[in-house]
Design goal:
This protein is mainly alpha-helical and 309 residues long. It has one domain: Na+/H+ antiporter like fold, CATH 1.20.1530. It contains 15 helices and no strands. It has helices at residues 2-23, 31-54, 57-60, 63-87, 91-102, 110-118, 125-148, 153-158, 164-178, 184-194, 197-208, 221-246, 251-261, 267-276, 280-305. Helix 1 crosses helix 11 (197-208), helix 2 (31-54) packs parallel to helix 9 (164-178) and helix 14 packs antiparallel against helix 15. The longest helix has 26 residues, at 221-246. It is globular and about 55 Å long. The relative contact order is 0.19.
Length: 309
């Protein structure tokens, strides 16, 4: 348990530094965007490749992934039912709310949590691949149809090919499956670049929290509350029940899958909302609320489930 608390303390401290950098204008205008872009296009792909190239491929295609998938789908389905019965929101807003209920921040928060709390990025890799390769294209397809009245199949199918994290992850998985051992001169620079990923994404995330005002009147508070409760409470509970009683995961995997399920809503959902100009305020507030709420949730999960606590 002590190691888990130290892990969260490290993450929280770096996020706080990012917040203060933005609050006092230390890095100047546009610094957050630059950090995000370098992390997205360079550092995080390098980290994912090096981690996955050494990972046990069985973890990537196992009951662990199935548990994550089922919990995400059940959480999103619950939101759809509630939205249908009580909120009567348009299709695009409903889909974004459902996505906010299950799509986790596997990059900015998930990777640091996996490394510093769970001990390895291999726990977050399966859900990261699932979201980027399957869930994101489905969400974008529905948004395309509901907002434009047409479906750009080519853009949706080629999206994974334009995402450096997907390309790097796929390459890492191929190396792992093939059993290939890359020479040190090839891995060393990638490991060096990958080492910069976590500090950059945490600093950028902390910078993004500066100046935000949560839950203004008329901003869809009930929608935010519903998505946040499902994301932080219901989905991790489902993951625990499935992992413990259906898929019989071992202690480390059960801790990992419940922890990953309790991660906050991914900023990608806000990006999708902004791209289509639908549900922007609600998705932004859901991201921020779940980010704050996930901290005590993750600490409670660690207290109850961490092996050797």
């Amino acid at each position: 348990m002590g190691g888990v608390l130290v892990g969260f303390a490290i993450i929280g401290f770096v996020i706080l530094v990012g917040y203060l950098i933005e609050r006092f204008g230390v890095a100047g205008a546009g610094a957050q965007r630059v950090l995000n872009r370098v992390a997205f296009f360079v550092a995080t792909p390098a980290l994912l490749f090096t981690v996955l190239s050494h990972a046990d491929a069985r973890v990537l295609f196992s009951s662990f992934l199935l548990t994550s998938l089922c919990s995400v789908l059940l959480g999103a389905g619950l939101y759809l039912v509630i939205a249908r019965l009580f909120f009567h929101t348009p299709v695009a807003e409903t889909v974004l709310g459902a996505a906010s209920s299950g799509y986790v921040n596997a990059n900015n928060i998930g990777l640091p949590v996996a490394i510093y709390v769970l001990g390895s990025a291999r726990f977050v890799a399966p859900i990261l691949l699932l979201q980027l390769l399957v869930l994101a294209p489905v969400i974008l397809a529905v948004l395309d149809v509901s907002t434009r009245g047409r479906l750009s199949v080519r853009a949706i199918l080629t999206q994974p090919l334009r995402n450096p994290m997907i390309i790097a992850s796929a390459a890492g998985v191929l190396v792992s499956i093939s059993g290939m051992r890359l020479p040190a001169p090839v891995l060393a620079p990638l490991e060096l670049l990958g080492g910069a990923a976590i500090p950059m994404v945490l600093l950028a995330f902390g910078m993004s929290l500066s100046g935000e005002r949560l839950l203004r009147a008329g901003s869809g508070r009930r929608l935010v509350a519903t998505a946040a409760v499902i994301k932080v409470v219901v989905v991790p509970s489902i993951a625990f029940l499935l992992g413990r009683f259906v898929f019989a995961l071992d202690a480390a995997e059960l801790f990992g899958v419940v922890t990953i399920s309790a991660l906050p809503t991914a900023q990608n959902i806000y990006n999708f909302a902004a791209r289509y100009d639908r549900g922007v305020t609600v998705t932004r507030d859901t991201v921020l609320v779940t980010t704050l709420a996930s901290v005590p949730a993750l600490l409670l999960i660690a207290a109850l489930l961490a092996p050797g606590r």
